[in-house]
Design a protein that fits this description.
This protein has 378 residues and is α/β, with parallel strands linked by helices. It is 36% helix and 19% strand. The protein is globular and about 60 Å long.
Length: 378
């Protein structure tokens, strides 16, 4: 019998109030503020996105987490890939939802961490390996008393790596935390950000894990255009692989470069085709049979809420199209014996990448996921 495919939906733990967001973006800010204030950029542009029943939830509320877990399980999602924002030994952000899941065993969902190992900066700050988290709300702040860095990533030394490991260890010990061969799975989003230090850190983590109850750490690194190899296993992150960060033919790179240059001059968003992006994702999967590379798919993408006229938009998606392509991706994953498939995303509302019900499609994308999983795993 063929292996059952397990779908992991990437999960943003952002939708709850924290002091840092109050300070940086305004009192009470969460991504919901950006989502509510998004404006359409062209005719029939589906903005702003609205959750079904106006459920602008709070992820510090346990009932919300239970609702999400129950909904995910109902529609066949195996687990959440929760973004992890550990910047240094003194600063970790947006950790509350994961901690609530860890501490409440009746929240019935598997999970793992995806470490977004970058710094957070203001829009005007030019810094490699950083994210300008909410550009549309930056208001061109150029306070000279600030260096533009909101949260600075610093791996530190061995003692800092130990603090990071000790924080994560209780999650690893949770029966719901996803493990492969008795190794907790830990995904690194930017493996090319000082790969040498990361390798040393994970060697140390491997040692610490083996001193405990595990056989090591199962590190999965995102594929990257710099081709820096951090770990034996990697994951293709979509839709970046197919549209936003190209690792493809010279001709396609030239086309993209021209398109971006024109849009930048005209102050227009970058627009890509849903069909084209998915076809490229499927084609990549067909030619990447390495069992140590996990595939990923995407529901949609439109970060107008965060970036306004500088948005990146994948246009033309529907639940029907998504289901068609997702079935193909799951079938390829099964054919090449890849147990897990990642999906962007469960609740990236600010980037228009979510499975949660909205006012336009209701639960149609969730139903598409369920049918696709059932077809492949029958």
């Amino acid at each position: 019998m063929e292996n059952k495919i397990k779908v992991i939906a990437n999960y943003l733990p952002q939708f709850h109030r924290i002091p840092e967001n109050d300070k940086w973006w305004g009192e009470g800010f969460t991504d919901w503020e950006a989502v509510k204030n998004a404006t359409p950029l062209f005719k029939d542009h589906d903005q702003p996105r609205r959750p079904m029943n106006n459920y602008y939830y709070d992820l510090s509320d346990i009932s919300t987490l239970k609702w999400q877990a129950d909904l995910a399980k109902k529609y066949g999602i195996y687990g959440f890939g929760i973004y992890h924002y550990w910047f240094n030994s003194e600063q970790i952000l947006l950790q509350k939802p994961a901690e609530l899941i860890r501490d409440n065993k009746d929240i019935d969902i598997h999970y793992l961490f995806i470490w977004d190992n970058t710094s957070w900066t203001r829009t005007w700050k030019r810094m490699r390996f950083s994210n300008d988290y909410a550009p549309s709300f930056d208001n061109n702040v150029t306070d000279e008393s600030s260096d533009g860095v909101l949260a600075r990533l610093d791996y530190g030394k061995e003692e800092d790596w130990k603090k990071h490991f000790d924080y994560i260890l209780p999650f690893f010990k949770d029966d719901r935390y996803i493990k492969i061969n008795n190794k907790p799975v830990f995904v690194v989003f930017v493996p090319h950000n000082d790969t040498k230090t990361l390798k040393k850190m994970f060697d140390y983590w491997n040692y610490l894990a083996q001193k405990d109850e595990f056989d090591g750490i199962f590190v999965i690194s995102r594929t990257n255009i710099e081709r820096k190899i951090l770990s034996e296993y990697s994951v293709v992150y979509e839709p970046a692989q197919s549209t936003l960060v190209q690792d493809s033919s010279i001709l396609w790179k030239i086309i993209l470069k021209i398109n971006k240059s024109i849009n930048r001059r005209l102050n227009k968003p970058e627009i890509y085709s849903y069909k084209h992006a998915w076809n490229r994702a499927i084609n990549y999967a067909k030619h990447t049979k390495n069992e140590k590379i996990f595939y990923s798919g995407f529901v949609g993408f439109d970060d107008t809420a965060r970036r306004g006229e500088k948005a990146r938009i994948i246009k033309g998606g529907t639940p029907e199209l998504f289901e068609k392509y997702f079935i193909k991706l799951l079938q390829l994953s099964q054919k090449y014996e890849k147990e897990y498939v990642f999906l962007t995303a469960w609740n990236e509302w600010g980037e228009g990448a979510y499975l949660e019900p909205d006012t336009r499609y209701g639960t149609a994308y969730l139903e598409a996921v369920k049918r696709a999983i059932d077809i492949v795993n029958k």
